[in-house]
Automatic annotation (TrEMBL):
It is found in: Cell membrane. Coiled coil: none annotated. It comes from the Bacteria. This is Branched-chain amino acid ABC transporter permease. The keyword Transmembrane helix applies. Its main location: membrane. The chain crosses the membrane at residues 33-52, 64-89, 109-131, 188-214, 235-254, 274-297, 309-325. Keywords: Cell membrane, Membrane, Transmembrane, Transmembrane helix. InterPro entries: ABC_transp_permease, LivM-like. It is a multi-pass membrane protein. It comes from Benzoatithermus flavus.
C-alpha cells in the first residue's frame, strides 16, 4: 500500500467509526419505540382486574413470576449467562422482606427496596465467582449458591422458621392508604405496577449502548474484548441488576402472601423460571412475561383437569414446543411471519 493510501485509510477511520456510532444510535432509537402491540399488552392487566375479580390472586402470582422471568432473561437472553440457582436471589428477597415485616418494619415500599438491595448485593458479590470459567462452571456455581442459602435457611430455624415457614408478618398499607385484602385486589395492583416500572427500566437499558454491548458479548466475547469493550464490568453490572430484580420478585411474593417458606429457595424455583423462558423465548423481555402467563394458566388448568398427572401433560407440551421451535413462542411467531411474507411476495 502506498503512503498516500495508508494515510487516507487512517484519516477515514474516525469518519467510519462516527458513521457506525450514528447507525447504532438510529437502530437503538427505532428499536426503543413503543408500538401499539405493547400498549395493548399492558392494557390486558387493567381489563383482567375488572373482568376477572375472582382470579386476582392467580394473576398476582403471574405478575411476580413475570418479574422473576424478566430478571433471568436479562442475564440469559442478553448476556448469555446460564444459571440454575436464580432462586437464591428470589429467596433472599422474600426472606428479607418477610423478616422486616415480622420485626416491625411493616411499610411495604421501603421493605421492597431493602429486599431488592440485599439481593443485588448478593448478586454483586457472587458475580465474581459466576463469571469465571465456562458455562458448566457457572451452572455449578449458581446452583451451589442457591443450595447454600437453602440449607442456611433450613438450619437457622430460630430466624427463618425453618420447615414451618416464616409467620407472623404484618405488612402495612401501601402509601398508608391501600391495605392488602383477602381478595387480592391490592396485591395484584401492587405487583403489576412494580412489574411495569421495573420492566420500563429494563427496556430502556437493553436499548442503550449497554444493552448493545451485552448482545455483542453474548455473540462473541473474545471479539468484544479485542475491541476494548469493558466485558467483565458489563457482565457484573447486568448480573447485579438481574439479582436485584429477582429479589424484588421474592419480596413481592412475601408481602402479598404474608408468608415465606423454604420453597422460595428450592431448586424447582430456578427450574420453573427457566421453563417459563423456554416457553416464551429469550432475548426480547416480553418472552418472560408471555411465558409466565401461559405457564401459570396451563398449570392452573391442568391441575384442575388432572391433579395427579398435570406435570406429564405440561412436560409433553414443552417437548412438542421445543421440537417445533428452539426459541419458544418467539420462534413460532418469527416462523409464521416469514411464511406470511413469502406468501405475500411476488
Amino acid at each position: 500500500m502506498s503512503r498516500t493510501g495508508f494515510l487516507g485509510g487512517i484519516a477515514s477511520a474516525p469518519a467510519e467509526a462516527a458513521g457506525t456510532q450514528a447507525e447504532a444510535k438510529i437502530w437503538l432509537g427505532r428499536a426503543a419505540r413503543v408500538g401499539w402491540p405493547e400498549i395493548l399488552f399492558w392494557l390486558l392487566p387493567v381489563l383482567a382486574f375488572f373482568l376477572l375479580p375472582d382470579r386476582l390472586p392467580l394473576m398476582s402470582e403471574i405478575a411476580i413470576l413475570s418479574l422473576f422471568a424478566l430478571s433471568l432473561d436479562l442475564i440469559l437472553g442478553y448476556a448469555g449467562i446460564v444459571s440454575l440457582g436464580h432462586a437464591a436471589f428470589f429467596g433472599l428477597g422474600a426472606y428479607t422482606a418477610g423478616l422486616l415485616a415480622r420485626h416491625g418494619w411493616s411499610e411495604p415500599l421501603s421493605g421492597l427496596a431493602l429486599a431488592t438491595a440485599a439481593a443485588g448485593l448478593l448478586g454483586f458479590l457472587s458475580s465474581f465467582l459466576v463469571l469465571r470459567g465456562s458455562d458448566l462452571t457457572r451452572l455449578m456455581v449458581t446452583l451451589g449458591v442457591a443450595m447454600v442459602l437453602a440449607e442456611l435457611a433450613n438450619k437457622m430455624a430460630w430466624l427463618t422458621g425453618g420447615a414451618d415457614g416464616l409467620v407472623g408478618m404484618e405488612v402495612g398499607p401501601i402509601l398508608g392508604l391501600f391495605e392488602f385484602d383477602i381478595f387480592g385486589r391490592t396485591g395484584f395492583v401492587y405487583a403489576t405496577v412494580v412489574l411495569f416500572l421495573l420492566f420500563c427500566v429494563a427496556r430502556y437499558l437493553v436499548h442503550t449502548v449497554f444493552g448493545l454491548t451485552l448482545r455483542g458479548i453474548k455473540g462473541n466475547r473474545l471479539r468484544m474484548e479485542a475491541i476494548g469493550a469493558p466485558v467483565s464490568r458489563n457482565l457484573i453490572a447486568v448480573y447485579t441488576l438481574a439479582a436485584a430484580y429477582a429479589g424484588a420478585a421474592g419480596a413481592l411474593l412475601a408481602q402479598t402472601t404474608q408468608f415465606v417458606s423454604l420453597d422460595v429457595l428450592e431448586f424447582h424455583r430456578s427450574a420453573e423460571v427457566l421453563l417459563v423462558l423456554i416457553i416464551g423465548g429469550t432475548g426480547y423481555l416480553y418472552g418472560g412475561l408471555v411465558g409466565a402467563v401461559l405457564f401459570r394458566v396451563a398449570q392452573d388448568w391442568l391441575t384442575g383437569f388432572t391433579q395427579q398427572y398435570w406435570l406429564f401433560w405440561l412436560g409433553l407440551i414443552l417437548v412438542v414446543l421445543v421440537l417445533v421451535s428452539r426459541e419458544g413462542l418467539k420462534g413460532l411467531f418469527d416462523l409464521a411471519r416469514r411464511r406470511l411474507q413469502r406468501g405475500a411476495g411476488p
